[in-house]
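Pilot study result, target chain (228 residues):
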Amino acid sequence: MFKFDPRTKIFLLFIVVLSLLFTRTISEEAIIVVSVAVFAVVAGKPVVAITGGAFYFLTLLITTRGVYYLPEGVISISVTSFFIMNQKMTATAMIGLVLLLTTKTDELVSAMNKLRISTKITVPFTVMLRYLPAIYREWSTIREAFLLRSIDNKKKSWIEKIRIYLDFLYVPLLISASDLADDLAISAIIRGIENPAPKTSITKLAFQWFDIFFIAGFLLIFSYLIIS
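Predicted structure:
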């Protein structure tokens, strides 16, 4: 397992998105997916590589073979279009997952600052990364309390169940979301978000040989797609 620089992962994500725009055949798509899978394994996320690869080849099988078993018309076109769209997005989703799962928030922010990305992008992105996991934890806590108190009675009508879910799940979640937003805003002010001076970071970022190796490899693939 190698610890890649966050800038490498951001750059590879950008290159993969551009490369997919220039693919013309299934074999070219497969090369990109396999390359991303290798990167995921080297980055320490083999589950992402296996799951993403299996999903890609499953959608490929459906779009190339399964379509013949569907009735002609709107259904066939809709199903094929849906799976082709997912097939195209597989490589991007895989490398995006590797980026999110292997990069800490402070590392990502430091990398974005070094790349001279505007604070109009970095600040909302950072808040989102801190906000969503906190909301998920709150949802899990509220859901556990909901189940422990046996509020979800299966004998009740579906209209009554909707009212119960709104009262005991979503209302507490909205209140928690509001409180979390206030806490994040206070935290950002304390950290000096309004200070116009250049931001510093204790996180040290540096390119290693494996960063350069994968950047060069993905650039070669991208160059081949453009030239061919």
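One observation from the pilot: The first helix runs from residue 6 to 22. A full batch analysis is planned for the follow-on phase.
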